[in-house]
Amino acid sequence: MRYAIMSDVHSNVHALTAVLGDVDEQGADVVLCAGDLVGYGAYPNECIELLRERRAICIAGNHERAVIALDVSGMNPLAASAIYWTAKRISDAGMGYIRKLKPRATLNLAGVPAAMFHGSVRKDNEYVYEEDAGPELLALAKAQMVISGHTHVPYVKRVPEGVLVNPGSVGQPRDGDRRASYLLYDERQMHFQLRRVEYPVQEAAKAITAAGLPDFLGARLSSGI
User: Fold this and answer.
1) 85-104: per-residue pLDDT in tens?
2) Which of 62, 173, 177, 179 could pair with 125 in a Cys bridge, judged by C-beta atoms 3.0 to 4.6 Å apart?
C-alpha cells in the first residue's frame, strides 16, 4: 500500500486539486488527512467534497472544532474572521461531515502501529515542530509512528522508538516554499517522500479576496510563510 499523507488543506481547492492529481500519478492507494480541511480559504465545501469522494481517512483539526462550536478562543483575528466566514457558508452536508470527524485515528500500516493527530497527542492546537518531536509523543500515542499537522512545516524524524512525521500544508505552506506539500509513504519499504506540488497560487489568492476574506490570507500564499 502507498499512502498520501496530508494536512491543513484550509479550503484551498486549487492546491488540493493539484495535490490529488499528483497523488494519482504516484499511485497512492489511500489518502490520510490530519485535519484542518477548512479555514483561511474560499472553498470549504469543495475541499470537503473532494476528500469525501476519495474516501480519505480524515480527522478534525482545531479549525473544524472552531467552526462547529463557533469558538475562536486562542485564535488570531485573521483566523477568527475566516472561522466566522466559513461557519456562515459551509453547507449542511459539509457541516455534517466535519461533525463526524474524530480527533485522532489509529492505523496499522503493514504491522506498524500508527496514530494520527492534528496538533499533538495532548491538544489539537499544540505546535509540534521537528525539534519538539520525540519518543515521549510515541509513548503517549502508544504507537511506533505519529502523524501530525498544524505547523504547516513538513518533516520526517526517525528515533530508535519509531518515526514522527508532519506532511506540511496543502493549502497554506509556511516553510518558505509556496508549493503545496504532502508525504508519500510506501509501507512495504517504510519510506517517506516529501512531495511539493505547484498550483495556481494567484487564482487561490484572488478567490480569497473576492470572497470577502482578509487580503492577507491570499497574499501570504505567494510567499509560503
Assistant:
1) 999 999 999 999 999 999 99
2) 62
